């Protein structure tokens, strides 16, 4: 089984017309909602998880000529398996025969996992997110076919649309407090996960968008530093869904725009130079 994640922006590489037909689907039994381009097919399957066990999974999927969109929810059950082993095995399976371009921490509300970008051997792209939560492995994957550049924005949109419902977490209260130096680390301080949980829906939504924006920028930075042009284009494109800068004409927004133009022109050197200049201006840490 395969899965994955990424971002549209100041300059848009392409936005499929079909994007307007997307709709959110909720699945309370598995405590999540997500947007699909059409009603998904729902099946059961046996999938292998860490430890070599085969377990039952529910698979929600939509397949098009240019892309696939899949959520797999595998019932890990007993015996319990360490979260790292669960996620590492899923990453290994997902990236088999391909190359992991982005592998960074990820969080949806108070559920923590990993976000990936994989370049497959045939040139296809996989955007994915992985979570070990409530005794289940959640594997969310958007895969674009080789040369299906118009599908990239849709695979990004799909993975980014995931929401866990019910307010649960796969971290203890102490872990949430210890994790936290800011809204995206899960802290219980101002702007942290504790605050988001107690905030109004509108405030919580703004905090979550801020966190997703920061994660999208982290994926962009990682791809540029790795010299991965396609991955950087995907990450930059996805950043546009969440970039709501305080000053759209400020130095950060302008630098992001310059990076987008460089990537659009295929000039990775210029993108790397602009990124480096942001580090210098920002004292070592870029902040979207």
Verbal overview:
This protein has helices at residues 83-95, 152-160, 173-179, 193-198, 201-225, 229-239, 251-264, 268-281, and strands at 23-27, 32-36, 41-48, 54-63, 67-75, 98-108, 111-120, 125-133, 136-144, 163-164. The chain has 288 residues and is α+β, with helices and mostly antiparallel strands. It has a domain at 17-164: Mog1/PsbP, alpha/beta/alpha sandwich (Protein Transport Mog1p, Chain A), CATH 3.40.1000. The chain is globular and about 50 Å long.
TL;DR?
This protein has helices spanning 83-95, 152-160, 173-179, 193-198, 201-225, 229-239, 251-264, 268-281; strands at residues 23-27, 32-36, 41-48, 54-63, 67-75, 98-108, 111-120, 125-133, 136-144, 163-164.
List the helices and strands and how they pair.
Blueprint: E1 23-27, E2 32-36, E3 41-48, E4 54-63, E5 67-75, H1 83-95, E6 98-108, E7 111-120, E8 125-133, E9 136-144, H2 152-160, E10 163-164, H3 173-179, H4 193-198, H5 201-225, H6 229-239, H7 251-264, H8 268-281
Antiparallel strand pairs: 1-2, 2-10, 3-4, 4-5, 5-9, 6-7, 7-8, 8-9
């Amino acid at each position: 089984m395969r899965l994955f994640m990424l971002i549209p922006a100041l300059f848009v590489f392409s936005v499929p017309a079909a994007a307007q037909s997307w709709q959110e689907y909720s699945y309370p039994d598995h405590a999540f909602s997500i947007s699909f381009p059409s009603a998904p097919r729902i099946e059961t399957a046996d999938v292998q998880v860490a430890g070599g066990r085969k377990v039952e999974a529910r698979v929600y999927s939509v397949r098009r000529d240019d892309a696939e969109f899949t959520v797999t929810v595998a019932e890990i059950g007993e015996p319990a398996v360490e979260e790292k082993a669960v996620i590492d095995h899923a990453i290994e399976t997902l990236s088999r025969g391909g190359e992991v371009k982005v592998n960074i921490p990820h969080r949806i509300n108070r559920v923590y996992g990993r976000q990936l970008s994989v370049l497959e051997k045939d040139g296809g792209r996989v955007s994915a997110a992985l979570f070990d939560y409530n005794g289940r492995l959640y594997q969310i994957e958007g895969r674009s076919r080789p040369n299906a550049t118009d599908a990239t924005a849709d695979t990004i949109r799909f993975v980014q649309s995931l929401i866990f419902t019910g307010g649960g977490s796969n971290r203890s209260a102490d872990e949430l407090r210890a994790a936290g130096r800011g809204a995206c680390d899960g802290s219980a301080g101002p702007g942290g996960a504790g605050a988001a949980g107690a905030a109004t829906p509108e405030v919580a939504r703004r905090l979550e968008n801020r966190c997703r924006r920061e994660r999208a920028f982290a994926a962009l930075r990682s791809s540029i530093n790795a010299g991965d042009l396609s991955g950087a284009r995907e990450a930059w494109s996805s950043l546009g869904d969440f970039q709501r800068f305080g000053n759209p004409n400020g130095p950060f927004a302008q630098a992001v725009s310059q990076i987008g133009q460089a990537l659009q022109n295929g000039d990775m050197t210029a993108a790397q130079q602009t990124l480096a200049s942001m580090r210098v201006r920002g004292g070592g840490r870029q902040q979207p």
